[in-house]
Amino acid sequence: MTSERKENPDTPAMLAAVRTSLSPERFATYLRASAGDPDLALRLHTRNTALSAGFYGPLQSVELTLRNTLHRALARRYGAAWFDNPATGLNAYAITEIAQTRAKLKRGRYVPDAPHTVAALSFGFWVALLGPGGSANYAMTLWRPALSAAFPHARLPRKTIHREFDHLRTFRNRIAHHEPIFTRHLAADYAKILTLAGWMCPLTRDWIARHSRIPTLLAADPAQESLF
User: Fold this and answer.
1) Using one digit for the tens of pLDDT, what is the confidence trace for 179-221?
2) DSSP code at position 9
3) The model's pTM
4) CA 82 – CA 226 distance, rounded (Å)
5) Alpha carbon of 116 to those of 87, 97, 102, 144: distances in Å?
6) Which of 112, 124, 160, 168 minimizes the number of CB atoms within 10 Å of its CB?
């Protein structure tokens, strides 16, 4: 792809069309970071896209690991359908999210059973289970009896674990909404992904690191990067 791009460079008309497609407001972010040079701005946008794509896999793995780890911990304590068990002590936000998720599954003609419900709940839902829970007091209803066991390799308080996963949720959402990430300390973001995965399962962390493209992307020459 890189050699083809060199042999057949983008035409001025194509570049102008891409800038329009990105929207003036979005492109302005890259222009400001490129001292007003539109060619450099497009190159920076290309790099941002490549980096975002590279982070998708590691973030997906951490999200799936968190979801399934928390589900197993809650199921051991409150049963496979823990979200229907009043003893779980979920707060109003969680109850509403579960109800809306199951209603959406029904509209899509899926069975709103435990596997489908667990898979359909958002990353934000799972991260919120690590939070204080408001009047539900998750420290007593969720953390101590169940969720603390989900992090066997992290000797840390609930507040710290929740804060770190919530930071990761914010980063994940920036990528999901196609926002710029090039100004972030991306090496630190990647290290955090590996750290949080390791809190739950060191072998999964090692697998993520083994297959991740992030170190290569961070070390790459931006001029050689392509969108696809």
Assistant:
1) 999 999 999 999 999 999 999 999 999 999 999 999 999 998 6
2) P
3) 0.90
4) 46
5) 22, 14, 8, 26
6) 160
